[in-house]
Design goal:
Largest sheet: none
Helix content: 55-70%
Number of strands: 0
Low-confidence stretches: 1-11
Order of helices and strands: HHHHHHH
């Protein structure tokens, strides 16, 4: 049974109504066919594209040119085959640019962190606190004294002796 036979091609609403009726009648069969050939999501995309093509080529769906369902199934099959053969199925992209996908190496930063931790461990807790606040948190000596709740002179003294201790450790290691 053809739905588009005998309609006036100059009446767009009648074509639209006929295609809507065509979708209602044949969508389940086309979707079942597409599901057998591919996965659920791609099958739904294929069915949508099939009916878009039916709407665009409504003139080909007259009764004297064969079965409407046969035409729809053939279009769906061709779309699936085209999709499988395409670069999309092989996860390829066609661009004029090549992008460098290398990621920066964080090994140096990790090794530096390990080395800093090993240098700070022999220091007293007070000296570590001052160095952490000043160098890792970016605080001034006065801000560190307010955070630690000790006089500024004490923080300056702790900073001096902590740096001297680090220099000794570095000269002994390297």
């Amino acid at each position: 049974m053809t739905l588009l036979a005998g309609i006036d091609d100059s009446a767009p609403s009648s074509i639209s109504d006929s295609v809507h009726e065509l979708v209602e009648q044949h969508r389940p069969a086309v979707l079942a066919y597409a599901r057998r050939l591919t996965d659920q999501h791609l099958a739904e995309d294929i069915v949508q594209e099939t009916f878009i093509r039916a709407w665009r080529h409504a003139d080909r769906l007259h009764h004297h040119q064969g079965s409407v369902r046969g035409w729809l199934l053939k279009v769906a099959r061709n779309l699936i085959v085209d999709r499988m053969r395409s670069a999309y199925a092989r996860h390829e992209t066609v661009t004029g640019h090549t992008y460098d996908t290398t990621l920066p190496d964080h090994t140096d930063g990790i090794l530096t962190s390990i080395e800093v931790i090993s240098l700070l461990q022999p220091l007293s807790r007070e000296h570590r606190e001052v160095l952490t606040l000043v160098y890792l948190c970016g605080r001034t000596l006065n801000e560190a004294s307010l955070i630690l709740g000790v006089p500024s002179g004490t923080v300056k003294s702790r900073h001096f002796y902590a740096m001297r201790g680090l220099r000794k450790q570095c000269s002994a290691r390297f």
